[in-house]
Amino acid sequence: MNDNNRMSTDGLPTPGRYLAIMAVSCGTALAVIDGSIVTVALPTLAHDLGVDSSAAVLVVTVYQLVLVMTLLPFSALGSRIGLRRLYQYGQVMFLVSTILCFFARSLPFLLVVRAIQALGAAASLSVSSGLIRAIYPTRQLGRGLGINNVVVSSGGAIAPTLGGLILSVASWPWIFAAAAPLALLSLVLGRQALPEPQLHEEPYDVLGAVLRARSLPSPSFDVNWNRRCPSCPWTCWRSRCSLYRRSVRSWHSLPR
């Protein structure tokens, strides 16, 4: 009897559970797909915007860097303001920036919009695992996490093919518009079905979030610099010192 009562309050009932996991899956899929689908359009994008191919790569790099930088800070923020609320905010931000990407006609504007798009994706991805824990009962949690992993793997695998298919029948801005239906579906389903786990009352560590976000991009830029200038003997030491310095700063920022 106790087990039945526990299971009835642990996770969502089956009708709502399916809608909730579909909402999370759509949000996860669009974030993963949009991160790599644009790679097949970089030559066409560079030609249309009148920039070098090396500069067009920033469309992918900016998205990935902002996404990685803000995942952990957003995850901590979600436990304070609500996982469902942050997830929905992220979807709205992603949808608006996706529409703006469609109308981009210059590289600087496109990079700014891609950064905003990455912020929306990070806000949604950072709380997806926490939402899955609230959607599925404890005994079936592995099933929910497995579904999410399949969506991530499938999205990354299908993105280049989908991008090539879109480019064969339309121009490169339509690659960004392809994710809009998934964002709309995730918003509609999430508004009805997503649960709201219990909030944490601890204050948000703004300084710690900034330090953690700042510690990630510099090593990546150093690696890119090493590739552009492999003959410079000091670049390798610069990369190592940069990584060590930011690791020490992040360590000292941890609460004692």
Would you give an account of this structure?
- The chain has two domains: 201 residues, MFS general substrate transporter like domains (Growth Hormone, Chain: A), CATH 1.20.1250.20; 52 residues.
- The N terminus is likely disordered.
- The chain has 13 helices and no strands.
- The relative contact order is 0.16.
- The radius of gyration is 20 Å and the shape is globular.
- The protein has 256 residues and is mainly alpha-helical.
Question: Could you name the key traits of this structure?
Answer:
disordered N terminus, mainly alpha, globular, 13 helices, 2 domains, 256 residues, single chain, 79% helix, Growth Hormone, Chain: A
Helix content: over 70%
Task: State the shape.
Answer: globular
* SS field, number of helical segments: 13
Low-confidence stretches: 1-9, 227-237
Order of helices and strands: HHHHHHHHHHHHH
Mean pLDDT: 79
Largest sheet: none
According to CATH, the homologous superfamily of the largest domain is MFS general substrate transporter like domains
What CATH architecture label of the largest domain applies?
Up-down Bundle
User: Strand content of the residues, in percent?
Assistant: under 5%
User: What would the CATH topology of the largest domain be?
Assistant: Growth Hormone, Chain: A
Briefly characterize the structure.
This protein is mainly alpha-helical and 256 residues long. The protein has 13 helices and no strands.
